[in-house]
Design goal:
The complex is a heterodimer of chains A (179) and B (179). Chain A is built from 1 helix and 12 strands, in the order αββββββββββββ. Chain A has 179 residues and is mainly beta. In chain A, the strands form 3 sheets. In chain A, strands 1, 3, 4, 6, 8, 9 and 11 form a 7-stranded antiparallel beta sheet that branches. Chain A has a 3-stranded antiparallel beta sheet with strand order 10-7-12, with no helix packed on it. A two-stranded antiparallel ribbon of chain A has the order 2-5. In chain A, a hairpin with a 5-residue loop joins β3 and β4. With 179 residues, chain B is mainly beta. Chain B has a single domain, classed as Immunoglobulin-like (Sandwich). Helix content of chain B is 13%, strand content 48%. Chain B has 1 helix and 15 strands. In chain B, a hairpin with a 5-residue loop joins β4 and β5. Chain B starts with a helix and ends with a strand. Classes of the chains: A mainly beta (179), B mainly beta (179). β2 of chain A pairs parallel with β1 of chain B.
Chain lengths: 179, 179
């Protein structure tokens, strides 16, 4: 009986030794790959403002003055165009990582979204009119092989009837962000 | 406590990453829109141009100057029978301080009431700066928000062969616009 226990103990010791030997031979090295794509920071490289020129407003009929992405000026309702209709087309050019997907959107100061693209133009006496901008490049786009995207801007100003005469101006914002 | 501290550290890391991302992954362009709005230009007719009613014993020119003075009515050639005589008086309104131009036709036709015979009235104004083939151009800056313009006319009866007696009326069309 005692002999049997000793043999069993010896066998157990042998198994432990064998197990230890087996672990030393099964060591393996796992290889993982870490990757990161570093994109060039987006920036505004140039822009042209959006002048609507001079218009006259009816005393009893509201209207609009609009400038297309190509710079063509038109009016509706009680707005009459005054002076030249040759308007500089408005746009922004952004630069970033070539051939990379981005989203173009209208925004407010600081980049907060302005889904409707609606802004306020004011004169020195705090009279206001409403500007709405649009662009055929709004939404998902891809930067070209040079990393550029030019975003043309069209706009329309709604002028109420008998709006106070004056020079109105204000800011609008366009944001381009990587997807 | 330790667990709470770890959570705080993790949240802080997330906040830092969240704040830093837009500065590099997006760019916002700011543009300026501008429009100059003017009160609509208009014309108020204070009085119409009325040539005198005359009876003819000869053929001459009957006229009313832009200040209402008549000529061609003297002697045995022609005399005034009745009716009002006077130049047309117009008031141009618009944006104070802005330059406007007004087109007065060099001449216009009057048609005999109840008939088809026509006579041609040559116009003259108190603001006649230039006389072109398309008519008389007058203009200037609106010192206030109105400008008065007088229009007179002359009817060459001597050149109107086959003159048919009667009342003659016509439309004098004057156009004003901002420069």
């Amino acid at each position: 009986m005692n002999t049997s226990h000793l043999l069993a103990a010896a066998a157990a010791i042998g198994l432990v030794a064998a197990a230890t030997s087996a672990n030393a031979q099964a060591t393996a090295t796992g290889t993982g790959t870490a990757s990161v794509q570093i994109l060039k920071a987006l920036s505004v490289s140039s822009h042209h403002d959006l002048p609507f020129g001079k218009v006259a407003i009816s005393s009893d009929t509201a209207g609009t003055v609009a400038v297309s992405e190509a710079g063509a000026r038109t009016s509706t309702g009680g707005v009459a165009l005054v002076g030249s209709n040759s308007i500089t087309a408005a746009d922004f050019t952004f630069n970033g990582e070539p051939n990379t997907a981005v989203t173009v959107s209208y925004s407010n100061s600081g980049g907060a979204a302005n889904a409707g693209g609606t802004y306020t133009l004011s004169d020195s006496a705090s009279h206001n009119v409403t500007l709405t901008i649009s662009s055929t490049k709004a939404g998902s786009q891809t930067l070209d092989s040079s990393g550029n995207i030019t975003v043309p801007i069209a706009g329309s100003v709604a002028v109420p009837a008998a709006q106070a005469g004056g020079s109105y101006s204000g800011s609008y914002y366009v944001t381009v962000a990587y997807n | 406590m330790l667990r709470a501290m770890k959570t705080s550290a993790l949240l802080a890391l997330v906040v830092v990453l969240g704040a830093g991302e837009p500065a590099f992954a997006g760019a916002t362009g700011q543009g300026t829109a501008s429009v100059t709005i003017e009160q609509a230009a208009g014309i108020n007719v204070t009085s119409s141009l009325s040539l005198p009613n005359v009876t003819m014993t000869g053929l001459t020119t009957v006229s009313v100057s832009n200040v209402g003075a008549t000529s061609g009515l003297n002697g045995s050639v022609m005399r005034v029978v009745s009716g009002p005589i006077g130049n047309a008086a117009l008031t141009v309104s618009g944006q104070a301080g802005d330059a406007v131009s007004m087109a007065v036709p060099e001449s216009f036709r009057v048609i005999r009431t109840g008939g088809t015979e026509t006579l041609t009235v040559k116009t003259n104004t108190n603001l006649e700066y230039a006389l072109g083939p398309g008519g008389v151009s007058v203009g200037g800056a609106l010192s206030a928000d109105t400008m008065s313009v007088n229009v007179g006319g002359a009817l060459n009866l001597a050149a109107a062969g086959g003159l048919t007696p009667g009342a003659y009326q016509g439309l004098l069309l004057v156009v004003v616009q901002y420069n």
